[in-house]
Amino acid sequence: MQPALLQRQKVEVGADTFDAVVIGEGATTVVFVNGLGSPLEEWALVAPAIADRCRVVCYDRRSATGKDA
After folding, report:
1. Which residue among 2, 10, 12, 29 has its CA within the 20 to 30 Å range from the CA of 67?
2. What gap in Å lies between CA 26 and CA 33, rounded to an integer?
3. What is the pLDDT of residues 20-45, one digit of tens each?
4. Model confidence pTM above 0.85
5. Cβ atoms 6, 40 nearer than 8 A
6. Measured between alpha carbons, how far apart are the two ends of the chain, in Å?
């Protein structure tokens, strides 16, 4: 299976701005958090499959502009 291209966008949460991918829609939101220095694209195979049923947010903590990042 080929990974999907995830389109990053800037998302503001309070005083912080993150690079994120927001796909799908629905009453439920699933948030994917990458770790160990890997980019949010690590979720390129999983996120689109989940987005068929609900809203999915993948965000990159490394891109936060706030002091708590």
Report:
1. 29
2. 19
3. 999 999 999 999 988 777 888 888 99
4. no
5. yes
6. 33
